Amino acid sequence: MDQQKKNEIFENAKAWVLEAGERIKNNIDSPRSIETKSNPNDLVTEMDQETEQFFAKKINDTYPDHYLLGEEGFGDEIEDLGGTVWIVDPIDGTMNFVHQKRNFAISVGVYFDGVGEIGLIYNVMDGVLYSAKRGEGAYRNEEKLPQLSEERPLNQSILALNTSWLIPENPHVDHKGMEDLVKKLRSTRSYGSAALEFAFVAEGLLDGYLTMTLMPWDYAAGSIIVREVGGIVTRADREDLDLLNKTTVLASRSNIHEEISKDYVRLKK
Ligand code: 2AM
Ligand code: CA
Ligand code: CA
Ligand code: CA
After folding, report:
1. Could you report the per-residue pLDDT of 163-220, keeping only the tens digit for each?
2. Same domain? 29 vs 47
3. Which of 1, 35, 162, 167 has the most other CB atoms within 10 Å of its CB?
4. Closest approach atom of ligand 1 to CA 197
5. Binding positions for Mg(2+) (predicted)?
6. Å from CA of 48 to ligand 4 middle
């Protein structure tokens, strides 16, 4: 992608993310209709939908030849990643948004012919914007993030891990491997927003993030930002991510990535 064009897209994306965040913040105490999607705990609010529609209009008005892949379905039906594709999660952490009124983020990734060029994750209530352009490092607001440690061993690491993967009946991963991992680690955390979990890995607050089910909009921005500080982002079995389908994800500091995947993750299918 042409550098000048990339900078322009970045500046627009950043302005739209901040504007969308402001709208959410201003309405945080307004009554809202909450619906459920695939199951009773899969929540969506009108704010998720309005925010995605906001991006759809901005992108369509400004870049009619770009595509949008968004969680709430106001984008395009996409079968491949040719051209410029915006991958948007209008509110990542909807359950936190509803229950806690914090700990959620707007996530925007811009891909050119399948390569992640721009990533933005906005922690709306904390007013913290994580951003990256491929090859130019990652930022927390205006501050450049340092490269991640390649020294700290697994037994001194904190991993973002949802307790679901420790339930024997979970269909995705052998829970005993996950138990062994929990015993090995210094500790675990679960924030309930995949985008923020990537951002915290990039910031060095977490040493890694392991999950068995993510959609493209959950990691489109996060994977770009984590890679810009030297982290590794793959599927849990270390294969390349597939940006069009549900996937497992392991994002971590480079020196613990293979160890987590090889010694602890035993996928069921
Ligand atoms: P959401 O809030 O945008 O739906 C919660 O652990 C994290 O998982 C959030 O990032 C949430 O995104 C995401 N999530 C929720 N339901 C999911 C699903 N069915 N598949 C994949 N990710 C999901
Ligand atoms: Ca959702
Ligand atoms: Ca999400
Ligand atoms: Ca969402």
Report:
1. 999 999 999 999 999 999 999 999 999 999 999 999 999 999 999 999 999 999 999 9
2. yes
3. 162
4. 10
5. 71, 89, 91-92, 218
6. 7
Interval 16-32: pLDDT, tens? 999 999 999 999 999 88
Q: In this structure, are 10 and 55 located in the same domain?
A: yes
User: Which residue has a Cα nearest atom 2 of ligand 1?
Assistant: 93
Domain stops at, among 117, 144, 171:
144
Which residue, by CA, sits nearest to atom 14 of ligand 1? 214
Domain count within the chain: 2
Instruction: Catalogue the E-assigned strands of the chain.
Output: 34-36, 43-45, 67-70, 84-92, 105-112, 115-123, 128-133, 138-140, 143-144, 158-161, 187-189, 208-214, 232-234, 247-252
Neighbour count for residue 29 (Cβ, 10 Å): 8
Residues 242-248, mean pLDDT to the nearest whole number: 95
Model ipTM?
0.96
Mutate to test the pocket of ligand 1, among 69, 218, 247 (most ligand atoms within 8 A of CB): 218
